[in-house]
Amino acid sequence: MSDPVIVADGVSRWFDLKRGRVVALDSVSFEIGEGEIVAVLGTNGAGKTTLTKILSTLLLPSRGSVRVLGHDVVRDARRARAATGVIFGGDRGLYTRLSGRDNLRFFGMLAGVGRRALHDRIPGSLAQVGLAQVADRPVETYSKGMRQRLHVAIGLIARPRVLLLDEPTVGLDPVEAQRLRTAVSALRDDGVTIMLTSHNLLDIERLAHRVLMLRGGTITHDLPLDDFIGQVGHTATVTLRGRGRRPVLGPLPDGVSVSDAEGVSVADSWEMTLYLRGWAPTTFAYLSELFTGVDIVDCAVRESRVDDAFARLAGHVDG
User: Fold this and answer.
1) Taking a C-beta distance cutoff of 8 angstroms, is the pair 203, 196 a contact?
2) DSSP 3-state helix, strand, coil percentages of the chain (rounded to 5)?
3) Could you tell me which of 107, 89, 90 has the C-alpha nearest to residue 98?
4) Tell me: the pLDDT tens digits for 111-169?
5) d(Cα 36, Cα 193) in Å, to the nearest integer?
């Protein structure tokens, strides 16, 4: 097994303010391997962006260490930075009076890409993010989504071995967001190691192998994606609406994977929600018997997803 590409060991970061010390990260440790996509989840203030900034050498840890491809982000920041591409969400950080092409050329040079390589790469990078037709327009004329796509091109121009994505699809419409996910998937197939933070949980579902859950600056869960979703406690939710007689749940027979049920009746109508721990022939048989002779108006089946697990684990407390 190859050495991990990213190693965080006891990383803490705090800020001393007039009102006292604010701890953003508290003894965070993890490893990420080559070609792995790891999502970092947490409520606002959980420490996600602080962690991304430390990994990208934009912020120093108060305690602990981080190594990227063996390079310490403090003692060997230049080499760590050279191996890392960063894509932050939002439309700031660009020179708006310059064209998209000139922004890409400038930031590519800052990242250490040679003139000849830039000449060869820029047209393809602009085409990849759908900006080829507007490449020579000033960025001040770009929409928010177009600026975000330019950020993506800047983050990829140096062909980094490590990519940090912080809210990469913010401001993108569904087509643009899917285009970005496709590009990220291709990078993963090329062995690029990726750490992703996003409030768009569809990004997590489509891309991540593994999830780190931050709460209050501390890692509370480090699980493969499927195991993280499994924290919900059920495989699917079945919601039924009907009229007239509401079915009564009796004792559940052996083998029926129904973990819980809730129901509410209003006037002549009712609604019931079943939480299924799994699908089996006995599950279908039980549901069929339960609703025989009952007037069903609507039935909706929803598979458990990342947002269900996130809501369950995050609770109602901001990190």
Assistant:
1) yes
2) 35, 30, 35
3) 107
4) 888 999 999 999 999 988 889 999 999 999 998 888 888 988 898 898 899 999 988 88
5) 5
